[in-house]
Design a protein that fits this description.
The complex is a heterodimer of chains A (364) and B (356). Chain A is 68% helix and 2% strand. Chain A is mainly α and 364 residues long. Helix content of chain B is 72%, strand content 0%. Classes of the chains: A mainly alpha (364), B mainly alpha (356).
Chain lengths: 364, 356
């Protein structure tokens, strides 16, 4: 028996992700060194930028909200083996819906306004994902491609809306008016980016985890994901549950969008308010190996990189674009490390790991 | 027939060429069973490296060569992670796109702190006599070098796939890798080769965008063309002729969109075009018997009637430029919706090749 990295099967994916992460960071470090940057300065700048004071620390933590919501959205869809690359567009749809309600609707009772705006975000994201879900269910159009297209469409529609119907005519800038006070999440600590939506979001992600792990709905998702043919025979429609999972996935991303507007540092709808959080969510879900409890450390890492990376230019003279490079490398390394995990599993059990047997999955 | 004139036709072909180059490469890799979603990133790398090398060396040829190498390197990376290490193809593609976006933005800031300045670009080469043909002469026979290369390449790839041993190996690998393996083909090697070639094609497509047509590089200048190229494959049912038609169609849509940006009101001929397309799709659905096809009859008829009304009324409306930009992605969505994908899709597309 050769050396075993770990005896526990549960620990194996954690270790594989860890190795992948280290590899990605190592390659990034090599890139930085080749470009004559001092690594110590860069690391220091990232940590100072992310945690050097109450305000940056609160900003870092507030970034966890959209990242973890989107990652949860990816995981829900992936349970039934649907690939939702459209989280970014669903953030935009949810944010637009929440922003519209927050600006244009008047409510007699303040908290109701916030609730309705948040609900609009959920519905907006779900409906936008629903387009891809409908195309997949009705015509078999691959959600991988349709959600990619829907992302590109959402970006343009947003660009038009904030220069057209939703523009704040008084300011002359490409942005909407500010959301009414009643529709904004109250601040947790005055003057920081952290708002009370954190509590609701964490509770919702916990609830999603419970539903997936403990209820019949979660069980049916797993069934469809594991074997669509078998579940069809057992009257669990892969189409219906696939659509449902995509809708929930979109709703979670839409909620992330609503928080970007209703609990943001700026409370207007503007270009790029989705800020690539949809793709961050994918990185985090992959790094966490599609496990919801694993999301927290992975999201914390990406949030730190995002917040600290923003300060890289001023503090270390490094372009913050390097953060995207690191994220791309993490995805590639994590994708590659699945094999590593299987190798370890094989050594331990000495039983062939069930790999993709010669069945076409029909990727598109 | 404003805006459908010779200038529009010429722009259509010009805008189709990067799509055609990228989709031709993707055709090779998808026929071998590898879904390369990283196409967008490989195009972007090709566009940047092509500009960077051409700017540094003063030679456009050097730029194009460097772009091919950069794209090919992207393809090799895709192959290493997705085929060598068996990573999920879709995930690896997403990773490559993010990596390429970050890397090109980073390198742009470092290499050109003042932004990229225009350099010489490829001159159009007019073919004598042929380029004098009214309408299509200017569109087809006044391309730059890469334009002609693109049309030659899709023909060459069509021949390669159908007539050569390598083509047979590629098709067999995508269709049934176990059987291919039993027949003495190494499916993994075939996938490595075709994925790398696809990357090189994407790099060339990127070079067409930067040094071929505008002579500058801008952040994220591929703007979704890689994804549209992947959609073109579905639309063209994984056949070379379908890919050619698809690329020209999306080029035409892009050219129309650019044209309408300059118009103050939508010309009636555009409404007429929409009506004709709806009528053609209606006719197609009518001849098919599946319930799915029959369900589209109502909406298509409604679109047709609406376009007739618009042709008569000629409302004085202009479409915002952002919506025009989004229109080509909507066209892609409709194309995906209308494509019967099961007919000709490589059976093992995006599925890892079973080992032993």
């Amino acid at each position: 028996m050769s050396w075993q990295p770990t005896r526990s099967a549960a620990f194996r994916p954690v270790l594989a992700s860890g190795v992948a992460l280290c590899l990605a960071l190592l390659i990034s470090a090599i890139i930085l060194v080749f470009n004559d940057h001092d690594l110590g300065t860069v690391v220091n700048a990232v940590f100072q930028g992310a945690y050097g004071g109450t305000r940056p620390a609160a900003s870092t933590l507030s970034k966890l909200i959209p990242i973890m919501l989107c990652a949860t959205g990816w995981i829900v869809a992936f349970r039934v083996r649907r690939i939702n690359i459209g989280l970014e567009g669903q953030i935009i749809a949810g944010g637009l819906a929440a922003g519209w309600v927050g600006i244009n609707v008047e409510m007699p009772w303040g908290p109701a306004h916030l609730l309705v705006a948040v609900a609009a975000g959920l519905v907006g994201g779900a409906l936008y994902a629903g387009i891809a879900a409908w195309m997949w269910a009705r015509a078999g159009a691959s959600e991988i491609l349709t959600t990619l297209m829907l992302n590109l469409i959402a970006i343009q529609v947003l660009a038009w809306v904030i220069r057209g119907p939703m523009q704040d005519k008084g300011s002359g800038f490409a942005r909407s008016e500010s959301v009414r006070d009643a529709a904004q999440w109250p601040e947790m600590f005055a003057g920081t980016a952290l708002h009370w939506d954190v509590v609701g979001v964490v509770a919702l992600i916990g609830l999603t985890w419970l539903v997936l792990a403990r209820t019949t709905l979660g069980f049916r998702f797993d069934m469809v994901g594991a074997n669509p043919e078998m579940s069809r025979h057992m009257d669990v429609s892969p189409t219906r549950f696939g659509v449902l999972a995509l809708l929930i996935s979109g709703a979670l991303a839409g909620l992330a969008g609503s928080s970007r507007i209703l609990a943001g540092e700026v409370t207007t709808v503007s270009d790029n308010f989705s800020a690539n959080y949809g793709y961050d969510g994918i990185v985090v879900a992959l790094l966490a190996r599609n496990s919801i409890p694993g999301l927290l450390p992975a999201a914390l890492l990406i949030a730190t990189l995002r917040q600290g990376g923003g300060a890289l230019q001023s503090r270390a003279g490094v372009s913050s674009e390097i953060v995207l490079v690191v994220q791309g490398l993490i995805i590639l390394a994590v994708a590659a490390s699945v094999l590593l995990e299987h190798r370890w599993g094989r050594q331990r059990s000495a039983v062939p790991v069930p790999e993709a047997v010669g069945q076409p999955a029909g990727g598109l | 027939m404003e805006p459908f004139d010779a200038l529009w036709l010429a722009a259509s072909v010009r805008l189709a060429i990067p799509l055609l180059l990228a989709a031709t490469g993707e055709l090779i890799s998808e026929r071998a069973g590898v879904l390369n979603l990283g196409l967008e990133g490989m195009m972007l790398s090709g566009a940047f490296v092509g500009y960077w090398a051409a700017e540094g060396s003063g030679s456009i040829t050097a730029g194009i060569m460097a772009a091919i190498l950069a794209g090919g390197f992207g393809g090799l990376l895709m192959a290493a992670v997705a085929i060598g290490l068996r990573g999920d193809q879709v995930v690896v593609g997403i990773g490559l796109n993010i990596l390429a976006l970050g890397a090109t933005n980073y390198a742009l800031e470092r290499a050109f702190p003042e932004g990229s300045l225009p350099i010489d670009r490829l001159d159009p080469i007019a073919i004598p006599v042929l380029s004098e043909i009214p309408w299509i002469g200017g569109a087809l026979f006044e391309q730059n070098l890469l334009g002609y290369v693109a049309f030659l390449l899709i023909g060459a790839v069509a021949l390669m796939l159908r007539r050569t041993g390598l083509g047979l190996e590629i098709r067999a690998t995508g269709q049934n890798p176990s059987a291919a393996s039993a027949a003495g083909v190494n499916p993994l090697r075939t996938q490595w080769v075709s994925t790398s070639i696809a990357g090189a094609f994407a790099g060339l497509a990127g070079a067409y965008l930067s040094v071929g047509s505008v002579g500058v590089f801008r952040e994220a200048m591929t703007s979704g063309r890689g994804f549209i190229a992947v959609a073109i494959l579905v639309f063209g049912r994984w056949r070379p002729a379908g890919v050619l038609v698809g690329a020209l169609l999306f080029g035409a849509a892009d050219a129309l969109q650019l044209r309408l940006q300059a118009e103050s009101a939508v010309p009636a001929s555009v409404w007429m075009l929409i009506g004709i397309i709806a009528a053609l799709l209606f006719w197609r659905s009518l001849r098919r018997t599946e319930v799915v096809a029959l369900r589209t009859l109502g909406p298509l008829a409604a679109v047709f009637v609406a376009s007739l009304v618009l042709v008569v009324v000629r409302p004085d409306v202009s479409i915002p430029s952002q919506i025009l930009l989004a229109a080509q992605y909507v066209v892609a969505l409709v194309a995906l919706l209308a494509s019967r994908r099961e007919t000709n899709m490589p059976r093992f597309l995006a599925t890892p090749v079973p080992r032993n």
